[in-house]
Amino acid sequence: MEEQKEQREKKEKRKKGKGGFMTILGGRFLLREKFSKQFPFMVYITVLLMAIITNTYIAESRIRELTQTARKLNDLQVEYVKVKSDIMEASKQSVLAKRLAGTGLKEITEPLKRIEVEPEKQEKP
Fold first, then answer.
1. What are the boundaries of each domain within the chain?
2. Per-residue pLDDT, 45
3. Which of 15, 25, 39, 71 has its CA 20 to 30 A from that of 6?
4. Total Cβ atoms within 10 A of residue 65
């Protein structure tokens, strides 16, 4: 007798499990009073989840944009250093002397002299 009760209880539990799954698939749970009371809360949670997903998407987009800008900045810094070193190399006195050798201009061998001019005294009338 006890065995029969246990078997009946097991069958009822199985039916409840199947019934619960079928209720969800069939959509019958939408008609229950508990669901209708909690529907606004579920909508609220859904909106919050959508906001979180959107925020995450925007943040990842900005991070990609910042990374790309940082790469461009790094490339520009490398180019700046290269151009600056090229200009420094080209403006050396020895390099300029070699480039201007064919034009007739010569490098100054004497040191520069300072010319001092005394201000003229103005006569009073």
1. 40-97
2. 96
3. 25
4. 10
